[in-house]
Specification:
Number of helices: 1
CATH class: Mainly Beta
Structural class: mainly beta
Strand content: over 45%
Shape: globular
CATH architecture: Sandwich
Helix content: under 10%
Radius of gyration: 14 Å
Order of helices and strands: EHEEEEEEEEEE
Strand order of the largest sheet: 1-11-3-9-6-7
Number of domains: 1
Largest sheet: 6 strands, antiparallel
Distance between the termini: 5 Å
Length: 116
């Protein structure tokens, strides 16, 4: 198994409680939310806002996010938002995943995994 680990805590805090990560070439993602959390929404998109023959687009220009869900690994429940801490599993449902919150977060950690 190949894995990449990201700490998006700073990005979340500096970007008005929004963090993004790319899931291309991975089989699933685990997200751990630690600390005080009011409510976080899970969103996804395939749209990098590419312009044919001009730009491939990117995570920065991505748009058209829609609600998606993740499985709470402690309960097995599937949902599109979460209040509180936990570890959540996203099967790859789009090119980019966005976590958008309504409050501060202690830590936001991501593990991107590829089963080889």
């Amino acid at each position: 198994m190949l894995a990449q680990y990201l700490d998006l805590t700073e990005q979340y805090a500096e970007n008005n409680n929004i963090a993004f990560f790319e899931t291309s070439n991975y089989d699933y993602a685990l997200v751990q939310i630690i600390g005080s959390v009011d409510l976080n929404y899970f969103l996804s998109t395939l749209d990098s806002n590419a312009i044919t023959s001009v730009s491939d687009g990117s995570i920065v220009s991505s748009t058209n996010y829609v609600g998606t869900g993740a499985t709470d690994l402690s309960t097995g429940a599937f949902g599109s938002s979460v209040s509180g801490s936990g570890i959540f599993r996203f099967d790859v449902v789009g090119r980019y995943i966005q976590i958008q919150g309504e409050g501060p977060i202690g830590k936001l950690l991501v593990m991107l995994a590829k089963i080889s």
